[in-house]
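Q: How would the structure tokens look for this protein?
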Amino acid sequence: MADERGGSNTKVARVIDERGLGGMGATLEAAWTGETGERTSLRDLADEFNEAVLEAALRDAGVASLAVEVPSTYEALRSDAGSEATRARRRLEREGVDVDGLTGDFVTHQAIHTYLTRDRGASLPDDEGLADRKVETIEKLQGRISAVTESSLASLANADELDRDDYDVLVDVRAVCPSCGADAPVGELIRRGGCGCASETSADD
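A: Here is the predicted structure in token form.
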């Protein structure tokens, strides 16, 4: 694992150094390789990196963190055309931000890949444990849906739009085989490698 400077001349390493984004390299690597869970795509990492660059530019210009909405400003700058982009550029210029220098430090997903593989020696893991990671992701999403639903029911009950707030919320994601009609929870199906009807058909043949 390389240091974020390390004498590298890749664009990402240079921007990390010049913008004071210490720790960003490790964060990018962990997200790309799935060290902490689901892997993040290179395109999403490039967007996250560029938003961090925008935040750094705002800090350098002494702009209060709440004065500029970073995600929407970045999206406007990324489009680089139209009234939204023009307004975003003018707003940043009024705040003392060098917009051309800022956008010149934005990187592509290819640049992120070059940095991770060349500078940090990172590589994607093999598919060992892939099924468990996918099940974990699905279960987390189910939990999130359940929590949002429970909160919505409570809010509606408080507003007298619902008769009570103590309903049991069940989130059950299931998969149905189009061939044999087997119906099973997705997590169970993934862990056992399918419903089995394809294997039975092959054996019969």
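The radius of gyration is 24 Å.

The first strand starts at residue 174 and ends at 176.

Upvote if useful.
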